[in-house]
Amino acid sequence: MPLADKTHLRIPGPTPIPPRVQWAMNQPMIGHRSGECSRLVVENSRRLQPVFGTDQPVLIVTGSGTSALEAAVVNAVAPGEEAAVVVTGAFGDRFAKIVTRYGITLRRLDIPWSEACQPEVLAEFLQQHPQVKAVFLTYCETSTGVLNPIRELARTVHQHSDALVIVDGVSCLGAVDCRMDEWGVDIMVTGSQKALMLPPGLAFIAVSDRAWEVIERNPRSRFYLDLIAYRDNLTKQTTPYTPAVSLLFGLKEVLNLIQEEGFSAIVARHRLMMEMSRAGIRALGLELLAPDAFASPTVTAVKGGGQLDVEAFRKELRQIGVVVAGGQQHLKGKIFRIGHMGYCDPLDVLTVFNAIELALFRLGVPVELGSAVKACEEVWANVSRTHHGSAQ
Amino acid sequence: MPLADKTHLRIPGPTPIPPRVQWAMNQPMIGHRSGECSRLVVENSRRLQPVFGTDQPVLIVTGSGTSALEAAVVNAVAPGEEAAVVVTGAFGDRFAKIVTRYGITLRRLDIPWSEACQPEVLAEFLQQHPQVKAVFLTYCETSTGVLNPIRELARTVHQHSDALVIVDGVSCLGAVDCRMDEWGVDIMVTGSQKALMLPPGLAFIAVSDRAWEVIERNPRSRFYLDLIAYRDNLTKQTTPYTPAVSLLFGLKEVLNLIQEEGFSAIVARHRLMMEMSRAGIRALGLELLAPDAFASPTVTAVKGGGQLDVEAFRKELRQIGVVVAGGQQHLKGKIFRIGHMGYCDPLDVLTVFNAIELALFRLGVPVELGSAVKACEEVWANVSRTHHGSAQ
């Protein structure tokens, strides 16, 4: 058994909780209709705006990330309407499942599970489906480590239709640049347990003026996930139903951490961790699932096969003290995924590669110990040198 | 300003978190598909069964209590069907709102907001509405402190119809006797933040075999709150979507606390706290909202009026360090409510009355200091004497 509580959780969510956030969640419980809770709700909502890149209020829903995906669907699309879902992996597929479940005509654009959707592909698809009222996109596809070019895709949607642009930002918001208003994203949703460094249990949703008009006209039945109730209650400084108060305590501290590090530094840190991870994997002679152009700063997927049995490898890594994720759906047993987001820094990436080298060695996969770590360190060293140089 | 963090939160939920539960929630985050999380989900579900009085698995949903009320509605009643909702207060009213929102024909039985529904009243109502497919009941009506006689009401429903019996147990499960299977309750729901001593964010739902048949036939669209997905995933030792993991850590410790104290002792403690609270209020010459026969062991509502301005009184109490709730909807400004459930013991009830006496004195309401506390202590003393006697 590894040393208790010493596990390095490097899956693409849930992610480790920073000590200050953990401590913040230990405050004594408060009433959800108290002034203190109102201040928490209002301030957290306001301070989440730069993470989304929006001037719209950020709504706080108590639920898993999937509750936010569903909220986007049931609020924005009426029964019988058409919606396009761009499926680049398991979470695009989840959007498609929700859309189908709710009696919406699904126009599904399947992209191979290792690639991003390219604007010209979406443009052609939208020309074939001029009736779609909403286009569902995934910012970071957690199952593949692919980052879709949301800015360009949103522009493409607006060029070809009046459809709403709805984006699942669950596994990257808080780690990547997001300019929802500027890019013309109409609904952006995310969850608490990924780059936002909280336990699972909260979902966050921002909505454009254009989308609110659609939502207000939408006759579809909804109650717990009725976004109008969240918006109207937020103007009264509260939530419609008892929120997950301890996570609101934690969120306040998360937003302090983000403010202290600075959002551009956070984005740069995640980019560096991505580059280190990719260099390390390449140095080991392993194959990355996503090409560089589509790589996500929050999660890196690596192909198994040949001498690398990914499930045996993940088990060996766990013994050493590092937990990485496997593949989902048809990628199960075929890839492993390293999460490098939230409470994770370049040293943590080195730790992951320390463990990866050892695990490969133990499993008899040919590996030169230190080689991946060297490659990672070189990436980091060069970034440091650049920074040092630019400071002179 | 009162001493920081020394507030006694005595509202009917959220309720204070026991230190051991707080500590348990500080465990390092784990993956939601890990063996450790599977064990948490399965064990927590199993150990919740005695709280519900059921052999059915208890489903764990990440959401507010309202998400569980909605889950009951959307899973059990198809569009166009008829449902009866017994409204004894604000939470019965919430059931009615959800039912209406989902295109179900509402048969609403309004009971004055201070009384329980009597079986003969329900029987007559059901005879007038023979088509109802489900009857929605509230076990403890949080807004009035009334406990509805669920055993008798369930029996009445079964005598007069084949309708499902669906019960909101949010503000009492874990504090009162509940024998869901024996009483013939088909769906029982509760939340984490009341007698179960956790922060808000989890909801718990148990379903009878009879109700599962209805749920499986129900064509209504649902996704996040589709109970079939929770049931099927529980048999695979997991949840369909990322659960609020830190609350699952806490729940395990809550169930340890319940096991150590013993469920019958917990029920007796809540009953004692109710009797003490009622004796204290009477000693002050104030008027209880609910008669003794309908009183809930978890929350006591008290009428204001005359010399007692309840909002000024609640403010004064807060200054002293005790937080009680006000009234909801048409009872706003007319009552205050003392929560005495979960991590609350008879000494805490005495503390509440210490503060109540002082607050009344400060507001110039005639009060004999010590009189309410004396009455509370007498109740407790008599119970202690009885116990002492019976042990000989």
Automatic annotation (TrEMBL), chains A, B:
Keyword line: Aminotransferase, Pyridoxal phosphate, Transferase
Presence of the UniProt keyword Transferase in the record: yes
Chain residues that bind substrate: 337
A molecular-function term among this protein's GO annotations: L-serine-pyruvate transaminase activity
SUPFAM superfamilies in alphabetical order: PLP-dependent transferases (SSF53383)
Residue(s) carrying N6-(pyridoxal phosphate)lysine: 194
Cofactor requirement: pyridoxal 5'-phosphate
Matches recorded under InterPro entries: Aminotrans_V_dom, Aminotrans_V_PyrdxlP_BS, PyrdxlP-dep_Trfase, PyrdxlP-dep_Trfase_major, PyrdxlP-dep_Trfase_small, SP_NH2Trfase/AEP_transaminase
Superkingdom per UniProt: Bacteria
Aminotransferase class V domain boundaries: 30-329
Pfam families, alphabetized: Aminotran_5
GO terms, biological process: glycine biosynthetic process, by transamination of glyoxylate
PROSITE patterns linked to this entry: AA_TRANSFER_CLASS_5
Family per similarity comment: Belongs to the class-V pyridoxal-phosphate-dependent aminotransferase family.
Entry protein name: Class V aminotransferase
Originating species: Polycladomyces abyssicola
